[in-house]
Amino acid sequence: MSFRKRHWRHVVVLGLIVLTGFALFLSSWRRAVGPFFAIVQWIHIGGGILYGVALIGWVRVFYPWPRSGRTAFGGWIYFLLIMLLISGAGLLVGPSPTRAVATVVHGLAALILIVWTIWHLLTRLPIWRDPSGQFHISRRRALRWLAGAIVATPVVLGVPTLAKMVSGRLVGAGKNSDALPGFVPYTVVNGFPDIPRRHWRLHVLGLPRSTMLDWEQYQTLPRRRVDINFHCVTGWVVPHVTFEGVDLEAFLISLGWDRQEHPWVTFFSGDGVYTDTLNADQIAEYRPLLADRIDGQPLPRAQGFPVRLLVPHMYGYKSVKWLVGIHVSKTASPGFWEQRGYPQNAYLGSYL
User: Fold this and answer.
1) Which residue has the higher pLDDT, 136 or 115?
2) Where are the beta strands (DSSP E) in the chain?
3) Same domain, 158 and 284
4) Which of 196, 322, 295, 202 is nearest to 252 (CA)?
5) What residue ranges are annotated as transmembrane (predicted)?
6) pTM over 0.70
7) How many CA atoms lie within 13 A of 134 on its CB side?
8) Do 150 and 280 fall within a single domain?
């Protein structure tokens, strides 16, 4: 097979893997795929496995090695692809510490590869100058380049966000996130809510003793701590994270909660958009926290300062950040991601 055919085969296959990877990694893309998230996830995983088998097992006939004189450059690109495969395997089947490292390696390798692709497109503009100084353009080359540019555009637009996530920091409409190492900061709005403790209020509705707590009242409640491995549904994990806060079930019972009469509890984020729901059995079994400290320090803004929900043994999208409201009811109210196709029962292992 000619170099050109192998090259375009890689453009199509690797482009699909990159696009589905962005759909898993970036919040705006995840919202767009909605109920097709699981399908996109398996396309990314299955495509990556098949691509890796071909890349390693039939490298001489499958990989589009550059023409003579540029084999060293092709070797570096091949190295990046192998790093993507190794880190992807770590995300898929590795233990928690391995996944934490693999997340950064996978994102960094993808970022470098995307930047190279942008440079590759720019250096192959379908316009050239002949010896006389006249500019020429080929219609066929122009159409191919335009098709590649159109496909690359949404990826290019996502590069700044990917770069900030890989570095562990995400700058939104306001200020720096102060994200913790290992955590990939997600938000469904532009930036992070700025809620000073003195202005924070927690509204609890639907109970016989519906109430509103300020920060000083919240601090008087009984506290406990949990040590967990924090899992995101996209695959990354932060191992051995200690959260401290107020036991949710004990807090609701102290306000007169009847779990038989009002078995559903909905949580509201201070971003004004995000919500999620737990049922009484999940609350009793997994003992969620109203958490305000992580690893002995106050929550960073990116992690939900001043108070967030923390649900052990469930994926992170159940743990609502910037918690400002709780409402108990007789019926379920689908959360932000559940409305977009995610399962209500986000138990660890239910996706992978």
Assistant:
1) 115
2) 127-129, 135-137, 201-205, 211-214, 223-231, 237-247, 264-269, 275-279, 289-294, 297-298, 308-310, 323-329
3) no
4) 202
5) 42-63, 75-94, 100-122, 143-163
6) no
7) 3
8) no
Q: Are 32 and 337 in contact (CB under 8 A)?
A: no
Domain end (from 146, 166, 186): 166
Alpha-carbon distance 213 to 211, whole Å? 7
pLDDT at 149: 65
**Side chain identity, residue 196:** P
Tens digits of residue pLDDT in 227-280? 999 988 877 788 889 999 999 999 999 999 999 999 999 999 999 999 999 999
Taking the CB of residue 69, how many other CB atoms lie within 10 A of it?
7
Q: Angle 71-93/37-57 helices, nearest 10 degrees?
A: 130
Mean confidence (pLDDT) of the chain: 80
CB 173 within 8 A of CB 190: yes
Is residue 174, in this structure, part of any structural domain at all?
A: no
* Statement to judge: residues 160 and 285 lie in one domain: no
Answer yes or no: is pLDDT of 100 > 90: no
Length in residues, the chain: 352
Element (H, E) at 82: helix 71-93
- Residue 205, pLDDT score: 95
Which tokens hold the place of 90? 């770590």
Same domain (yes/no): 249, 335: yes
- Gap between the Cα atoms of 67 and 174, Å rounded: 48
Tell me, yes or no, whether 102 and 233 share the same domain. Answer: no
> Does 201 lie in the same domain as 151?
no
Tens digits of residue pLDDT in 48-86: 888 888 878 776 666 666 655 555 566 777 788 888 888
- The rounded distance, in Å, linking the Cα atoms of 185 and 27 is 10
C-alpha span between 8 and 270 (Å, rounded): 47
Of 262, 255, 271, whose CA–CA distance to 320 is shortest?
A: 271
40 in a structural domain: yes
Burial 141-157 (b: 16+ CB within 10 A, else e): eeeebeebeeebeebee
Query: What's the token pair of residue 173?
Result: 């409409």
Cα–Cα distance, 327 to 203 (Å, whole number): 8
Cα–Cα distance measured from residue 330 to residue 316, given in angstroms and rounded to the nearest whole number? 25
Rg (CA), the chain: 24
75 plus 149 within the same structural domain: yes
